[in-house]
């Protein structure tokens, strides 16, 4: 891996703007090649407590700074991320696997959150409330909640970090970040650029670790941490929620999904195929908002399947740094095993493999882009995330049947549908039990828009002006004795 700016490749943990290394380390691998990239520090509970202490000490100064000062520092950070887009993309592709074009897109997408919240931090307005009595005045002010612990996943190792850290810093909070152990290098590179941008010591601390459960418990139970922001599985989210209840921490949880993509008979076929492909196969199907279930109205099914299969078979798996590659590897063997288990269960219950269905010749962590038809609700993949490049196609006849199928899940993160009937669009959008709805579009996440789910997909919003609210408290002030 050749970086034009080698300082982006860090192996230590960052506490108080100082890079620290320890005797304990763990390897980071390239999922496309299986080769070790480097080793990073394996932090434990002691290092987690040091990071929290640093963030606690830094909070008073950082939170009292004028919003414009915080905004200016965030803008410098944003500019450095954009300046080093190519290196960050190479780093991302090397440790996570997605094609280089996608990686560059993620770097820019991640940077957009820094830019957006640099602007939003100057708009954390309070209110003047008309009082019911003549001698009093009512006000509200917004203040940062305190030290934030952010726990981020491996599938978007830049964007999921900036989507949490940027609003926290903008609000005046200080942060302890624990990135996923599969993809720690992007987090460390972002931290290096934050330090270069002038972020004061202790404001952002990053601890890499293989001891996720132990370190996570420190973060969720420490009395000096006032907010947890987590993206990951619903199972782990429940554990963190239970642990955080001991100190009643504020939580933002972006958890599992089971997104439907509904193709109605009046849909623009080309648009429906393009949108479903973008949702399903981006990042090799490893996104929480992937179209997990493709619901197709019976009358349009033959035409849709023909066009969709042509698009899926045109995908080119391979090492993300190679020219023309459009789909990368899965993150690890566990991901491969899960896909094979769910696919086997589906076939045993009557599903048919139209294309794909096996390990790809590109390597042991590559899976062929796959389509399964004749899928039904008694298959495990109707209720569990596939999290890979496998499309499960279901048939329906009526609009109400499609809505019922789509809502038949414990999850409620994202949903998609394709229709040109305006009345149908509004009816379906209002009936779907999801926090995010893509209508005639498969790419729905932007810094300007709120991102978050309902039901067992969690709660809280990231992005948009709602995103900074999760890092603020509203304080009510009552002034008496006014004549």
Automatic annotation (TrEMBL):
Molecular function in Gene Ontology: succinate-semialdehyde dehydrogenase (NAD+) activity
Aldehyde dehydrogenase domain segment(s): 20-475
InterPro entries: Ald_DH/histidinol_DH (IPR016161), Ald_DH_C (IPR016163), Ald_DH_CS_CYS (IPR016160), Ald_DH_CS_GLU (IPR029510), Ald_DH_N (IPR016162), Aldehyde_DH_dom (IPR015590), Aldehyde_DH_NAD(P) (IPR012394), Aldehyde_DH_Superfamily (IPR050740)
Active site feature: 254, 288
Superkingdom of the organism of origin: Bacteria
Listed GO biological process terms: aldehyde metabolic process; gamma-aminobutyric acid catabolic process
Keywords carried by this UniProt record: Oxidoreductase
Matches recorded under Gene3D superfamilies: Aldehyde Dehydrogenase, Chain A, domain 1, Aldehyde Dehydrogenase, Chain A, domain 2
Matches recorded under CDD domains: ALDH_F5_SSADH_GabD
Family: Belongs to the aldehyde dehydrogenase family.
Matches recorded under NCBIfam families: SSADH (TIGR01780)
Protein's name in the database: Aldehyde dehydrogenase
